[in-house]
Design a protein that fits this description.
- The complex is a heterodimer.
- By secondary structure, chain A is α+β, with helices and mostly antiparallel strands.
- The two termini of chain A are 51 Å apart.
- Helices cover 40% and strands 20% of the residues of chain B.
- Chain B has 8 helices and 9 strands.
- In chain B, strands 1, 2, 3, 4, 5, 6, 7, 8 and 9 form a 9-stranded mixed β-sheet that branches.
- In chain B, α6 (218-237) runs antiparallel to α7 (241-260), α6 (218-237) packs parallel to α8 (266-290) and α7 runs antiparallel to α8 (266-290).
- The two termini of chain B are 34 Å apart.
- Classes of the chains: A alpha+beta, B alpha+beta.
- Chain A binds chain B through residues 11-12, 14-16, 49, 138, 140-145, 151-152, 154, 174-175, 188-189, 251-252, 282-284, 300, 302-304, 306-308, 312-313, 315-317, 319-321, 323, 327, 349, 351, 353-355, and chain B through 76, 90-93, 96, 100, 110-119, 121, 131-132, 134, 138-141, 148, 150, 159-160, 162, 174, 179, 262, 265-268, 304.
Chain lengths: 683, 304
């Protein structure tokens, strides 16, 4: 049993790609080992800014010969199938295969033999395969080669049992291949020269000495602990930010957290502005005071142990932050001198879309939609909705949003508060882009809901009207997100909004249905249940639609539900089979069966149960009590079961009787389909 | 020729970078004598990035971004500024070490600072070009762009060039600890006539901003754009890629001015970018046709 150590060293790998790359490396190598019939113990992969590392232990030193029998196509199959088989098995002709009778006919068989041998001889080819298959989100070529990797590859350690594997990575073009070796390099600035390693433990120890933490988990822990220690010393708290931590851990090989200070001149600028500057632009961690407010300290993680203890680095970061915040403060002070309302004319100078006019025109549309939507939003003050809708885009022409586009809405809210506009209006301006995705906060205040809905509905209606619909992966105007936003606001706030009232395009309702399906599928609702409810069509009240889905899903979870579904299936199958034979039948069996023609007790029982159910279902549907409607169906089950036991539907020589019985079955189908299309349900 | 080891002023910075990259085997070229948005537009980058011939060059390129004009009032923004560009094709395996050497040369001590390579992919829609690389941070400040060219003029490159761009004013502000570009010492503060960046360029920023935003004759610019576009096509037909490419540069600058004047709508904008790209593509193709494989130049020996 021996250990395989692999290190793929390159120039700096984008932080966002590292974790996935390590997982892929491990998965692909394990698959190769399994496919080669090699067992192994534990496999662990690591990623950092300049290297992917994989260690696999417990691999046998040698592999015995392997033989695998493979069955091919039937003797006499078309040439194409035979050729495919030969190619797959790596054979030149059928002479190398044999015919064998399996009892079900004669088939071609082949025995593929893989020669065994020392594992060390098998591994280089496998490593090459793995490296070719590793799926970087974006790869490049470099120098005069044609090999693709995320950034130029610099060296490869491939050690098995402490010995360098005889292999290389072809870089193609005119480049000399990279030979597998046993050397790597340490930290860019804190280490010099090549480092020779003999195995994984040696590798980890020597790299640690060369200021490289190979394991991202260790780097994260060092960052977190260091940052917390610095914060404690400064009597502030670190604001947890897992995403930033992950990214920063991917930017440093030797993390050195340092603490800096935000110039107090900037502390009255809104915290969102400070946070964007620190976090997004500089990858600084934000800190808070005991009361939760933003503190004037930040943590920056350097990738260097500086001679002066980090003084220069902190000063540099403070300087860059100061320059950014000076800009921000300038805009903050300047912007507050202009009222939002005064900015509106400038929106007339911004083209929203060439075919859809300016932002000013868009605002007018949003305002009229918002007031119409407000009718259906309990508690939404009309005047406040109107005001918020008219001002919601005004911050687009403020200096701050010009500089920090990601603060649109947020700044509008601050400027509105500064003007002492009603809080509901300010909040609605701040909320109107939300929710920006499935996990974003969803507006819940009445005025906010109305304006946020109007913003999204206008985008959908407008882009639909000029034929700009999302197709496949193309959705340049983020209309799917807008659709999901509408759904979330409506559903999460249980708004009874008749969507179709706000647009002419019938297709748009289908689009909402599609979005809702995707959303429900993500939440684990059975897709056939969704289909069954959506098949009813024409529903534009999402709350009602979901109530139906919920009722159906839970009904189908009961035994009565499942049994009834079986009965429904039998009834529907018989009718469908007969309909296929006789195209005119559908018209003939529409409507209620003729009571006078009912002969047997069992069919009479079904007819009266059906009438009973219909009496119960109608008011339940009217009350939108779908659970009650479904429950009513449960009473159908016994009579239908008895019917199928005793009654022959397709009676010979009595066409009237047959037709009447088909009507009865058809009515079962029709009654149940009034609540959901049960034919879509998979048994 | 007594130059201090560490640059003390703006022009020292340029001289130091030139000397450093000359030492790396680069040709030291002069700026292209036309208005362009970035050093990448220089034929020494755009066209030389294509084809099978090795090419090491470095140069300063005055860069014009009409829409970035601030009438000399913003301490960090200019509509005319300098880029220093180094292009090494094919990219040598130690190109990042060489780049870091240039930082040491201009006085950034890596024992004191925190240098980071942060993912930043580059794309020029007008040139039909893209590449992968980083922005380079020094203590949180972006000091260079680094790109491995993958495509230029819509054409896959034969040899990959590593391109390094330094925004000189920004870098100088950092090195000399100035809050405003205009306060940068242009020449040595101890020279006979010490001048600041503002002494040299403030008036230019003021006048050019007025021109870019308010005075430029848009009818004339539209005409010039159309003329350059037409001439470019004619020159391509005559198999003159270099003169044709100059017309492409002209068209691109006219477009930038029109854009700054705010007379191009969002949809039109796309179509103008596409028109410039079409020209750039045609020029690149015509240029490539003139490039036949020859043995590697002596500068690239041992580099690949």
């Amino acid at each position: 049993m021996a250990e395989l150590l692999l290190e793929l060293m390159s120039e700096e790998i984008p932080a966002r790609m590292q974790t996935r790359a390590a997982e892929d490396l491990k998965r692909l190598m394990c698959n190769e080992l399994k496919a080669a019939g090699l067992g192994f113990g534990e496999a662990t992969a690591f990623a950092g800014p300049r290297r992917l590392t994989l260690v696999v232990d417990g691999i046998p030193d040698a592999r015995a010969d392997l033989s695998e029998e493979r069955r091919g196509p039937r003797v006499g199959s078309p040439d194409q199938a035979l050729q495919g088989f030969l190619k797959g098995a790596g054979l030149a002709s059928l002479d190398q295969a044999e015919k064998r009778d399996t009892g079900k006919g004669e088939f071609w068989f082949v025995v593929i033999r893989k020669k065994g041998g020392p594992t060390a001889e098998l591994l280089p080819g496998m490593i090459d395969q793995v490296m070719k298959a590793l799926p970087w989100p974006k790869a490049m070529k470099w120098s005069s080669g044609t090999r693709l990797w995320v950034r130029p590859l610099q060296s490869v350690i491939a050690l098995f049992n402490g010995e360098v594997l005889a292999g290389e990575v072809a870089l193609a073009g005119s480049m000399t291949p990279l030979k597998f070796g046993d050397t790597t390099r340490g930290h860019r600035f804190l280490s010099t020269g090549a480092i020779q390693v003999s195995g994984f433990d040696d590798y980890m120890a020597k790299l640690k000495a060369a200021h490289v933490m190979v394991d991202a988990a260790e780097r994260k822990a060092v960052i977190r602990q260091g940052a917390e220690r610095l914060c404690a010393g400064a009597q502030v708290s670190l604001k947890e930010d897992e995403g930033l931590l992950e990214e920063v851990a991917g930017l440093v090989e030797w993390p050195v957290p340092l603490i800096g200070t935000i110039d107090s001149r900037f502390m009255d600028v809104p915290p969102e502005v400070l946070i964007v500057s620190m976090k997004t632009h500089l990858r600084h961690f934000v800190t808070t005071k005991p009361d939760g407010a933003l503190a004037n300290r930040f943590v920056v993680v350097a990738n260097n142990v500086a001679r002066d203890g980090g003084k220069t680095i902190v000063e540099g970061n403070e300087r860059v932050l100061r320059a950014r915040l000076a800009d921000a403060k300038f805009f903050w002070d300047l912007d507050r001198k202009t009222r939002l309302e005064e900015r509106l004319p400038a929106l007339g100078g911004i083209v929203f879309h060439a075919k859809l006019g300016t932002q000013a025109e868009r605002v007018q549309r949003i305002a009229s939609l918002a007031t119409a939507v407000a009718e259906f939003v309990p508690g939404a003050d009309k005047a406040e909705v109107m005001m918020a809708a008219e001002l919601c885009k005004a911050d687009l022409v403020s200096g701050m949003v010009g500089e920090f586009p990601e603060l649109q809405g947020v700044m509008g809210r601050y400027y509105a508060l500064h003007e002492k506009l009603p809080a509901a209006v300010a909040d609605a301006i701040g909320d109107h882009y939300a929710p920006a995705g499935p996990n974003d906060r969803c507006p819940s205040a009445p005025v906010s809901m109305a304006v946020a809905l109007a913003d999204k509905l206008d985008a959908l209606v407008s882009f639909w009207s000029i034929g700009e619909k999302p197709t496949g992966s193309r959705d340049p105007y983020a209309l799917r997100r807008a659709g999901l936003g509408v759904i979330r606001i409506v559903v999460e706030n249980k708004l009874r909004l008749p969507l179709a009232k706000f647009f002419q395009q019938a297709e748009l309702l289908d689009f909402f249905a599609e979005r809702l399906k995707v959303q429900m599928r993500d939440k684990g609702v059975r897709h056939d249940v969704i289909d069954a409810v959506f098949a009813l069509g024409g529903e534009d009240d999402l709350v009602r639609l979901l109530a139906r889905v919920e009722a159906l899903q839970s009904f189908l979870g009961t035994e009565a539900g499942r049994n009834l579904l079986t009965a429904y299936g039998r009834a529907a199958n018989i009718v469908r089979a007969e309909e296929r034979k006789d195209k005119t039948l559908t018209a003939k069996i529409a409507g209620a069966p003729d009571v006078a023609l009912l002969e047997l007790a069992e069919e009479k029982a079904v007819a009266s149960a059906l009438a009973e159910v219909e009496r119960a279902v109608k008011p339940a549907l009217q009350k939108e009590d779908f659970a009650q409607a479904m429950q009513a169906f449960a009473d159908l089950r016994a009579p239908i079961d008895a019917f199928f036991d005793k009654v022959t539907v397709n009676v010979q020589d009595k066409p009237d009787l047959r037709l009447n019985r088909l009507k009865l079955l058809n009515q079962i189908r029709a009654t149940m389909d009034s609540v959901a299309d049960f034919s879509k349900i998979e048994g | 020729m007594s130059k201090p080891s560490k640059p003390q002023c703006f022009q020292d910075l340029i001289l130091t970078l030139q000397e450093y990259w000359a030492g790396q085997g680069c040709l030291i070229l002069q700026p292209y004598d036309m208005e362009m948005g970035a050093g990448t537009f220089h034929t020494a980058t755009t066209l030389r990035a294509l084809g099978p011939k090795p090419w090491y060059a470095a140069y300063v390129q005055p860069s014009r971004r009409p829409a970035d004009g601030r009438y000399g009032e913003n301490p960090m923004r200019l509509q005319h500024y300098y880029q220093f560009q180094a292009i090494l094709k094919p990219s040598p395996p130690d190109i990042l070490e060489r780049y870091l050497g240039s930082l040491e040369a201009i006085g950034i001590d890596t024992g004191l600072h925190d240098i980071r390579f942060v993912e930043d992919d580059w794309e020029s829609p007008t040139l039909g070009a893209w590449g992968l690389g980083w922005e380079v941070w020094c203590d949180g400040m972006e000091i260079s762009q680094f790109t491995y060219f993958q495509q230029v003029g819509g054409i896959d490159v034969d040899l990959v060039a590593g391109e390094i761009t330094y925004g000189l004013e920004r870098l100088a502000m950092y090195l000399f600890d100035k809050k405003s570009i205009y306060e940068l010492p242009f020449n040595s503060p101890s020279s006979n006539v010490p001048l600041l960046y503002g002494d040299v360029f403030l008036q230019n920023e003021q006048e050019q901003s007025t021109y870019n935003f308010a005075v430029a004759d848009t009818d004339m610019l539209f005409r010039h754009f159309a003329d350059a576009e037409k001439e470019c096509g004619r020159l391509i037909e005559r198999k003159l890629p270099l003169p044709a490419y100059e017309q492409c540069i002209k068209a691109s600058h006219c477009f930038n001015l029109l854009d700054a004047r705010g007379v191009i709508s969002v949809t039109e904008r796309q179509s103008y970018i596409l028109r410039v790209r079409t020209l750039a593509k045609a020029c690149c193709e015509a240029w490539l046709a003139t490039q036949v494989a020859k043995p590697a130049l002596s500068v690239a020996k041992g580099a690949a």
